[in-house]
Structures are given as structure tokens and as C-alpha cells.
Amino acid sequence: GLAGWLESQLDAEALVRPNPGRTQTLHRLNRAEYRNAVRDVLGLVIDVDDLLPADSASYGFDNIAGVLRVSESLMERYLTAARRISRSAVGTTPPTPVATTYTVSPALPQDDHIEGLPYGTRGGTLITHRFPLDAEYVLRAEVSLVSGGAELEISLDGERVELFRMQQGLPSLDIDGNEVGEHLEVRLPIAAGPREISVSFLKTPALLSETPRRLFQNPTVSRRSLPYLRSVAVTGPFEVTGPGDTPVRQRLFSCRPVTTNDEASCVTQILSNLARRAYRRPVERGDLDILQTAYAAGRADRDFEAGIERVVQQLLVSPEFLFRVEADPVGAEATNYRLSDLELASRLSFFLWSSVPDDQLIDLATEGELSDPAVLEQQVRRMLTDRRARALTDNFVGQWLQLRNLEAMRPSEVLFADFDEGLRAAFRRETELFFESIIREDRSVLDLLDADYTFVNDRLARHYGIPYIQGSHFRRVPVADGYRGGLLGHGSILTITSHPVRTSPVFRGKWILTNILGSPPPDPPANVPPLPDKAGVYAGRTPSMRERMAIHRDNPACASCHAMIDPLGFGLERFDPVGRLRDLDDQFQPIDASGVLPDGTQFDDVAELRTALIERPGRFVGTLTEKLLTYALGRGLEHYDMPAVRTIVRRAAAQEYRVSSLIVGIVESLPFRERRSAPATGSLAAAR
């Protein structure tokens, strides 16, 4: 009652004195946004990890404006990236052939079919490679453990280009050996543009008979019995015939001058189209003057296409492209003001797509219609159905749920010998498909906790003990055992909250407090003593995890936080460190998965924990709203933002907490649509 009264008083005060907060005037695009912006401006997909360093993170996300600074070294990287991207977009011939190698992880199982590769094959890899020019290229596969009769197929865009029949050779004891690698290559002409290269083994009866029957097979600790693919290299171009008619060039060269007299108007058209998309607004005369100067410099070096290449290079290092700019109105001092429609379009597109606004958004913003609530809601719903909304899963969910940490997890090869890269990839794919389905079907966000379905392929189904699932493709399956429904039963979450050799009630409890209940515990004090050793604590027997944690809580410095963290973590003890269900702990003792929520609600297992969490849905929905709003604004939330959070949650409750109601509520909220101008220089507020 007291908490409710305080909230109502604060919300009433916020109506009288609203404060939308203040985001940074210059908000640099992070690495993911830069990649997507290049894709949507030029139509070119780039490997941004090779071009730019990782971004700093704050408040749990790497799109926070306050930490996205620009250093001299970063500016050098942007200049280098601009040169490489502009050459790729135009199709400039590289000075020498380039070799690009795609390595296949040795921990990836290759005994069965891999999703995306042709049926009737096993192992291998599927690569999307962008060929820069119409030319000849060499495709080379490196294979280990060659055996007679094995057949390796190389296909390009689904069409077989070569089938290698390997001769019997002595399997190499040296994993780095490659007996026939020099023979597994083909040189052929390939048209410029993005192409899919698939390399896989034919799954013939002869090979099937060679497969030993084993309970499990971990390629990192046991010898493989079949040939497997180690890498694929693409080398070229050779014998160049031209830049080709790639989708990137079609998008870039919207016209071509027939005569010298046509060149000026064609260049203006190309520059206007590029600048409008890159700058996210209508083009001004000054914009064109700068780009015309860049074009003239490139044109003087070589030709028309060289001039456009220089323009693209100029665009990619322009502050108008690299930064989202929200400048205060002239004369405004410490007052609230509405964002312009163009600024609103950028906020919206970078929130939902992590990229630039499309033509429809820019058109509506230019005409002043985007700020209309009905139009704004219609655009939100349209954007959520667009394929680019996958960015919410990649960038928001990947950081909110800490899925990005999954790549760094290394469960013990001795205790969990069947854990491999295939299972790791399946863990992440399950959670991604799960979240995408909730967005696509506009379901209640409470499904994140208590859904009666999940997504599995045969590898993941075997790991979970779900019967009758075959094939490498993922499909939606019902779950009714009370354990696998929702995020708390996902192997991805359970693995990132464990140690390599054992579960961690502390990690798991902290994860629930932080990401589900929105009450992150404070950082541990310095010099925290480790858990008591397994042996020698209890006379005559090894203590259980619960007993060891109880001893740990005897330390007054640890007791206050662990009394809140540990009971939640114990609710997930039925899952081992890689997410399998178990009845006995690592000491072969029956597991006690009972616990208590911070509000005193008791539970006996994960099913009751899940039920307790959704009995008061406002806690979880409020936490999710805070995370989404932080991500959408690119800044941390302050006390004056909480009335807006509560308003969003209350409105969403009337729509069963559907995901669209939360996102529309955020987009229509005061912090998203307005901004507070900077105080006057020299004022007391500025000094503070």
C-alpha cells in the first residue's frame, strides 16, 4: 500500500513537471548499426568485425551514447573502412588476387546433415561470399581423415560445380595434416555479387556403414571416424572481365550518363539518392556541394565510376552518417521540446532495426505526418513485421539475456563430453527463434516465462530428452513437463549461468534478480572468500551445494545479498551446467530445488518458481520495459523516467502485455518523443 501511494504521488508530480531527460547531442553509430546502415544505404553486406573494433557497453548495452566516443585510432579505422567499402560497392579491381578462408570449427559435428545444406549430405558448411567482379575464382576445400569412397560436393547457388571422389589414404595422426587438400580445388568463372557456396559430403550407404554406433561422439576428445571439412578458401579474382551487374551497383548507379552533357544531371541524381539515405533527411544544397567536390576529385583521377567511389568514401566518414544528431532549438535553455519528425524517424528506426529509416519513414517525416499518433503506431506495427526487426533479437535480446556470453562458455570436456559447437549453436538458435515468434505473433511477453512450446532440432531434442524429433531443421514443439517452458528452461540461459564444472546458484539467482525482477544485487565486496571445499567440511561425507552455500552465508559480509540471491538460484538446480534435467546433484544426492522469492513467496521447483514469477506480472513486465526503454533511448534511466515506465506497463496490462503494446507504449512515451535542452552555460545546474 505504501509503495502504491508513493508511485501515485510521483506519477502525479510527473504530470505537473514532466522531464523527458536528455540524450547526447551526438550519438555515434555502434558497430552493428554501422553494418546495417551500410547494408541499407548501399545494399552491401560487410564483415564489420574485420573493419571496426568492438564498442564499449554501459547499462547492459553497447548503443549507449555516453560511451560511444571517437578516438584518433577509431577515426583511422573509419577511413580505412570507407576506402574498402567504396571500392567493393563500385567494383574496383583489386591490385592483386585475394584469398578469403572460412574455417570450420573442429568442435562442430559433421556426422549428420546440417541445416541449410542439400539433403542427402552430411557435415560441411554453407558460406555467403561476395564476389567483387566478373572473373575466375578458385574454390578450395581442405579435408582431414580422408577415406576411400568419400565424396565431397561443392555447389554454387544450389548448382553442383564439382564432385570430388577421394581415394583411400592412410588417416593422418596429425590433426593438421591434409593428404589430398591440394587436389580439392576447382577454378571457374563466377559472376559478381553475393553467392552461396555449399561444401558437404554425400551421405552414401558406404559411409553410413563406417559410422560406429556410440552413445555420443565429441570430435574434440575422440578421433573422428569419417572425413570432415576443415576450411574453405576463395581466391581471386583472375582473368577479370568486368565489374558485373551486382545488386549493389544496380542500387548505386540509378542512372548512367550517355554523353558528357548528361553527366552532371546523372551525378546529381546519384548523389541526392545516396545522401538522402545516408543522412536520414532531405538533401540540402550544401550537402551536394561537398559531395560534388569529392566527385570531381575522383573523376579527375580516372573516370565517372571513380568519382562515385570517392563520393561513397566521403559519405561513410561524414559526421551526418556516423552520428545521430539531436541539436537543441536555438535559444532553448533547460526546457522540454518535441523532437522533429526526422529525429523521431531516426530514433524509431535505430530502435527497431538498428539501422537508418527507409524511404517511407523519411517521406512521412518530411511531410510532418510521422508525429501523428495514429501514423506513428501504424509505422511501428509495419516495422515489427519487417525482416530488419530481427535486429531486436540480435542486439537487444543478445545483450539483455547475455546470449553473447554463450560463445565464451567452455563446459568441462571431461564431465560434459557430448557438448560441442553444434549444441552451442542450437542453444542460441532456440532462444532467438523463441523471441522472434513472440514478436511475429504479437504474443504476450509473459510467454517469455511460461510458454508451453519451444524450438528444437534433433540434436537439441536429444539433449533435452524430447522424443520423435529428427532432422537438423528447427521446428516448434509443445512442452508440457513444467520444466522447458520459457526462458528458465533454455539451455542457453542455464549454460551462461554456470561454471564449467558445476552449477552456480549465485549466477542463476543473480540473473533472475537482474533480468526478470529488475532488482540487481550490489557488486560483491572485495576479498570475498571462496566457497568451502567439497571435502572436509562435514565429517564423514561431502556437503551438497546447498550446504556449502549455507556455510558461505555465515560470513556477515556475504549473508545479506546471498539470502536474496541463493534461494532463486536453487530453483534451477534440477538443471545441470549444460541444461539437462537431473534428479541427483554432482555428489549423487537428491536435489532440493525449493526456495523463496524476495517477497516471501515459496516454491518447490522451477515450475512453481515460474508460476510465482507471473502471479505478479508487473514486476517482470516493468523490468522488460526498463530494459527496452534504455535500449531505445541509448542512455541509462533516471528517477524521472519511472513514471513513464509505469504508464507503459499499465497500458500494456489492458492488452494482455502483448509485445506490440509495450513497444508502441515506449515509442509514444515522453522520454522517446521529447528531449530536455541543455541549461544555460554558467548556471548552477550546468555547474552541477
Morphology: flat
Any low-confidence stretches, pLDDT <50, length ≥5?
A: 169-182, 206-217, 219-223, 683-688
Number of helices: 26
Quick one: how many beta strands? 16
Strand order of the largest sheet: 2-9-4-7
The largest sheet is: 4 strands, antiparallel
Radius of gyration: 29 Å
Structural class: alpha+beta
**Mean of the pLDDT scores?**
89
Helix content: 40-55%
Characterise the protein shown here.
The protein is an alpha+beta fold and 688 residues long. It has a four-stranded antiparallel sheet, with no helix packed on it. The C terminus is likely disordered.
Key structural traits:
688 residues, alpha+beta, four-stranded antiparallel beta sheet, 41% helix
Question: How do you describe this structure in short?
Answer:
41% of the residues lie in helices and 14% in strands.
Write the layout of secondary structure elements.
Layout: H1 2-16, E1 26-28, H2 31-42, H3 72-90, E2 98-103, E3 121-131, E4 134-144, E5 151-156, E6 159-165, E7 185-190, E8 193-202, H4 205-210, E9 228-242, H5 247-252, H6 260-279, H7 285-301, H8 304-316, H9 319-322, E10 323-325, E11 336-338, H10 341-352, H11 359-366, H12 373-384, H13 390-400, H14 421-440, H15 447-450, E12 453-456, H16 458-464, E13 475-478, H17 491-496, H18 505-515, H19 545-552, H20 556-570, E14 595-596, E15 602-603, H21 606-615, H22 617-633, H23 642-653, H24 659-667, H25 670-673, E16 674-676, H26 684-687
